[in-house]
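Below is one record:
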Amino acid sequence: MQELKKNLENSRIKLQRMKEEFTASAQEYRDVCYMLLGYKIDRTGHKNYRISNMYADSAEEYLTFTLCEDGIEMVHTDYSTSLGELVELHLHQHRSIPVFLSALTMELFTRTTMQQEIA
C-alpha cells in the first residue's frame, strides 16, 4: 500500500510539472507569434478568437474570428466595419485573411510612424 501511495504522489508531481511546462511553452509560443507576426491571439470561446495588432491605438481595436467547417470567418464588429476598404479589397475580392492582416499591420504601422514623426 505504501508503494502505491508513493507512486501516486510521484505521478501527481510529474503531472504538475508537465502542466507547468505546457503552460510555459504555450505562453512562449504566444509571445513569439506576437513578436514575429504582430498579432496577439486570444481564444474567447469555443472556436472563437480575438486578435489584436501590436500597432493598434487602443484595446478596442481588435478583430474576432470564428472557426467554421470550411475555414475561418471574420465576425463583423464596429472596428472591422471601420476597415471597410481593406475588408472589401482583401477579404471580399481576394478572399485572403493573411493579406488582409498584413495590409492592416502596414496601415497601422504607417499611421503610428507618421504620428511619431509629426510629434
